[in-house]
Structure formats: C-alpha cells, structure tokens
Amino acid sequence: MPAAPSARFTNRLAGEKSPYLRQHAHNPVDWFPWGAEAFARARAEQKPIFLSVGYSTCHWCHVMAHESFEDPEVAGLINKTFIPIKVDREERPDIDMFYMKICQMMTNTGGWPLTILMTPDKQPFFAGTYFQRETKFGRTGLLDLIPSVKELWDKHNTEVLSSASQITEALYNQSRSEPGGEIGQAELALAYNQLRENFDKEHAGFGLAPKFPIPHTLMFLLRYWKQTNDIYALEMVKKTLEAMRRGGIYDHIGFGFHRYSTDPVWLVPHFEKMLYDQALISMA
Asked: Which end of the chain is more exposed for a tag (fewer CB within 10 A), N or C?
C-alpha cells in the first residue's frame, strides 16, 4: 500500500491531546495552543492575539475552519498580523467562559466559534463569533477585517491598549456582586411569573426563535407545581415536552433531541446532539 501523502502544512497543534485541536493541525494558520509560548511570542513581536475558541461538534466552527482557516490567503493575513491561538472549549471551559462573557458584554450576543482579538497581556479589544472569508450580505469578512485591525494596531496602538484596559475593568466591575441571600417564596414566585409571561401559548416553549429545550426550567416548574399546586406550571411543562417530542427537534430516526429549534414551532432543528442535553431532558 502506498504511503499517505504528507500534509502541506503542520502547526503546533499536531502535538495536542484534544481531537478538536488536532483537526486544525494542518491548517496554514500558524496556530499556537493556549500557553506561555504564544504570549511570550506576542510580547516579543508586539503583535495582538487572534483567539479562536470552538469544539468538535460545532457546525459553524467547521464552516469557518473550511472557509477561512484552511484558506492560504486568510491564513497569511492572520499569521502576518497576529499570534493565533486555538482553544477547545471542552478542554478549557475556564478560558471559554471568561472570553464568552467579554463577547456578550461587547456585542450583546455570543456563540461559537468565538473570536477574540486581544493584547499580548490577554486584554481583549474586539469580540465576535463566526466570520466569513469575504464581506457580503452586510457582514464583514476576514479579508477586510484583518487589514483594518492591523492598521488600527499599528497607527493607533495607544488608543487600542486604553480601550482594552477599559473593557477588562468593566468586566471586572460587572462580575463583582454581593453574596446572595436565602431564596424565599417571593423569589420563586417572581421566577415563575417571568416564565409564565414568556411562555409561548400557541407553540409551547419559551420565547420565539431559536427555541432551546432548557430542561432545568421545566424541572423548576415541576417543583413549583408540586409545592404550590398551581396547575398552569404543570401545563407549561406538558405542552412543551409534547411539542418537543412531536417536532423536528426530536430525532425520529436516531432518537434523542437536537440542540435547539431554529424556528418557534420546534420544526427545523440545529443538527447537532449533545450528551448533556439528552441527560437533562431525560430527567425532565
């Protein structure tokens, strides 16, 4: 049998334990794993960090990898402008949680792939999720974004560093809170009434789209029903579970539930299934 052809590119992720990181080991992007080497290189070369966080079952992570990280032109821009770091959120949930809070604070949204641009001292100045290769449909692509960031970093470095410090300080202040007290009946009733107001009476579930199962909410309502005998709490759970079971979010061939429904009627699923979702939905 002939030997398998050697990969055209191999970066530092080839020696990592994470299967997700190894999936990117042959990208033309010169990826570093999270660690001292990457940040030391960033400080030595005075380059910002391009942090990309994802996981192996994330659909849009694979789309961005195929469109951009496997593309030599985009990779060349990333390598020239940044020190690129790849993180598996399932291996390092601590890093993911911190920078996801940054993304949510800066953009009012979040998700994966998570894209963070930050200083060599780990202070972020830009956040986003999925970025396509080219600018289209009103969304900025990496081919336009990266040169703009390079110009900003080179010509307005002081302002960028000041902004990054302010963002980090804002997150710190936002994260500080007084210790919580005991949860009483008033707090439970408030949570119940908020869920009741948000309940979709026509299609079940809570809110519009995308619509997640949120089994811990259903378990709260079941406990609230047992405690108060409020029959509507039970009805919200029954209607939601039935709508989930009858809808496309349920895998009628392979069984189990998909991650969420992309529409308000539970019809079109996001095609990935998570083990922890199956466990919690089973409990509900």
From this structure: N
Q: How do residues 213-268 score in pLDDT, each as one tens digit?
A: 999 999 999 999 999 999 999 999 999 999 999 999 999 999 999 999 999 999 99
Q: What span, in angstroms and rounded, lies between the C-alpha atoms of 77 and 75?
A: 5
Which stretches in the chain have pLDDT values below 70? 1-6, 175-178
pTM for this model (two decimals): 0.71
What is the model's pLDDT at position 168?
Answer: 82
Q: Which token pair is 122?
A: 């780990």
Q: How many residues does the chain have?
A: 284
**HEC letters along the chain:** CCCCCCCCCCCHHHHCCCHHHHCCCCCCCCCEECCHHHHHHHHHHCCCEEEEEECCCCHHHHHHHHHHHCCHHHHHHHHHHCEEEEEECCCCHHHHHHHHHHHHHHHCCCCCCEEEEECCCCCEEEEECCCCCCCECCECCHHHHHHHHHHHHHHCHHHHHHHHHHHHHHHHHHHCCCCCCCCCHHHHHHHHHHHHHHECCCCCCECCCCECCCHHHHHHHHHHHHHHCCHHHHHHHHHHHHHHHHCCCECCCCCCECCCECCCCCCCECCCCCHHHHHHHHHC
Q: Which residues make beta-bridge pairs with 49?
A: 83, 118
How is residue 205 written in tokens?
């579930």
User: Under a CB-based contact definition with an 8 Å cutoff, are residues 134 and 77 in contact?
Assistant: no
**Please, are residues 118 and 84 in contact by the beta-carbon 8 Å criterion?**
no
